[in-house]
Design goal:
mainly alpha, three-stranded mixed β-sheet, two-stranded antiparallel ribbon, 20 helices
Length: 459
């Protein structure tokens, strides 16, 4: 910056006891803007962002970089382990093994179907390029040709993998992606990573092109094949998969996430009553007389509270579900119009499970199936998943449950009754002790009565 000094006259009083004034010099510094700096600022004003896309705030944007705050908490849980899908992790050296194998799968697809040709696939995806780019929150630094090639290669690999898992196409006898057991477990998790997605409409277009008459009566939708693939871990009944055969998501993560949201809860609702409150952990709720019961339901999200009992469908906690929960919460935190069902459920679990004792209680009631680690490790995971996430407790699908459980917990009568029950009837031994004391009390009263009676009415 430039500065210019100007000397100006100023009247200054020399002697406080006299009226005489004399002029003194005063320096005034005037700051001038650096012309090159000003020009640079004007240039930056005219330049569009080079990292965050202008489409990131639109509802069409659905594939995001996971916020750094979540990565600091959960580490590499958001990164693919063996396969890159889409642009965010494209070209990373640690993922080159499967990257090379994608070309083999594409070659097998082309040799099996004959038509359309590879050129036809590229021409079919090219009109969708701009729309696909807008699905990503960051500006993709690839040119048109490279971007379209990536969409075709990754999309065809996913579809060919789904068809082989769904037994529409017979895998090669020595296909290492099927013979090495550890590979499938990582595929299941990698294809759920928020940063590792391509738009579902790209998959749908490629799926249409790759359908053949050989499938016959066994023809299934892309959604069915995708859910069957993830069902290798989830083990949901076939009728649940069939129910969602026409379900469409923004991408594979959103498809699976949406399949857990009941049709009547696609849109969240709030309460018109007093504000909801965060509830206490399992141990404290039990001290207020609240019970926990395992129920059967199509989705673990269907939690209910009736007559002092929280009814929860069984939820499995394993490596796959951990990845699903983490990436679904990250997706719901980033997407503009996405209902936050998984975030709400994760926060609900975070409230319930503070310690290993809380986890142990829900495991004993078959509400949690723990294949993840110790009860303490499950508690730590649940506490992490609910950290640094935002949702409106007054406008979520469990807002009514939060209010009702809190009101029940604050009722002193329920607390006193529960205290009596847990003090005297919680275990068989405490029950026997209480009964013995009660019988002794009755005998004492009876003895006192007959003593008084004999005194008043002697024979």
């Amino acid at each position: 910056m430039d500065y210019r000094n100007i000397v100006t006259p100023q009247s200054q009083e020399i002697d406080m006891g006299s009226n005489s004034n004399e002029e003194a010099d005063h320096v005034v510094t005037i700051w001038e803007v650096n012309k090159s700096r000003l020009s640079s600022m004007h240039q930056k004003l005219s330049e569009p962002p080079t990292i965050l896309s202008l489409a990131a705030g639109r509802s069409s944007c659905s594939i995001f970089r996971v916020p750094e705050s979540l990565i600091e908490i959960n580490g590499r849980s958001y990164q693919p382990h063996i396969v890159s899908i889409g642009p965010y992790h494209h070209g990373q050296r640690r993922l080159q093994m499967i990257q090379q194998y994608k070309w083999r799968y594409l070659g097998l697809l082309l040799s099996r179907t004959k038509t359309p040709t590879l050129e036809d696939y590229l021409k079919a995806i090219e009109p969708l390029e701009s729309r696909a780019r807008e699905c990503y929150s960051e500006i993709i630094p690839f040119g048109k040709d490279e971007f379209v090639e990536m969409m075709v290669l990754d999309g065809c690999f996913i579809i060919e993998l789904f068809r082989k898992v769904g037994k529409l196409v017979t895998p090669e006898p020595d296909d290492p992606l099927f013979t090495m057991a550890w590979v499938s477990a990582f595929f299941l998790r990698d294809l759920l990573c928020l940063e590792n997605q391509i738009p579902f409409f790209i998959l749908e277009r490629l799926f249409e092109l790759t359908e053949t008459s050989d499938e016959g009566e066994d023809r299934r939708s892309l959604s069915s094949l995708a859910l069957e693939f993830f069902n290798m871990s989830l083990q949901r009944p076939d009728e649940q998969i069939e129910k969602h055969k026409n379900l469409v998501g923004k991408h594979l993560l959103d498809l699976l996430r949406s399949s857990f949201i009941p049709g009547d809860q696609l849109y969240e609702s709030g309460t018109d009553n007093s504000p909801s409150h965060i509830i206490h952990c399992v141990t404290k709720l039990r001290s207020a007389g609240i019970k926990f019961k395992s129920t059967k339901a199509e989705s673990f999200l269907l939690v209910k509270f009736r007559r002092g009992v929280i009814e929860m469908p069984t939820v499995t906690i394993d490596d796959f579900m951990v990845s699903f929960f983490l990436n679904s919460v990250a997706y719901e935190q980033c997407h503009k119009n996405c209902p936050k069902h998984i975030t709400t459920y994760a926060t609900f679990l975070d409230c319930l499970l503070n310690t290993s004792k809380d986890v142990e209680i829900l495991c004993e009631r078959n509400i949690i199936e723990n294949y993840f680690g110790t009860d303490a490790e499950v508690a730590r995971f649940v506490n992490k998943i609910g950290k640094d996430v935002t949702f409106d407790i007054n406008y979520c699908y469990l807002s009514k449950l939060f209010s009702e459980v809190h009101a029940y917990y604050k009722n002193d009568l329920h607390v006193q009754c529960a205290s009596l029950r847990y003090t005297y009837f919680d275990t068989p031994w405490s029950f026997i002790s209480a009964m013995a004391a009660f019988v002794l009390l009755l005998l004492t009263l009876a003895q006192t009565f007959f003593t008084i009676y004999a005194y008043l009415y002697p024979r």
